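Working notes for the structural subgroup meeting. M.R. asked for a predicted model of this chain before we commit to crystallization trials. I am recording the input and output together here so anyone reviewing the notebook later can reproduce the run.

Input as submitted:
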Amino acid sequence: MRTEEPQMAGLTDDDRMVDLTEELVVLPEQTMDDTDRGWGESVRGNDDRLLAERPPHWD
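Returned structure, recorded in token form:
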């Protein structure tokens, strides 16, 4: 048995009013696993360490 709200009885999707004044966010722009932290990487950079450990042939 299907129950409907009284004001919606007999209306199809084309007939119902939809308020589009508020922005509806269905999915976030970026998920947690799409970040450095989500991949288990450090938040701070490691450029200094990489420059200090560069191979001798880079000199």
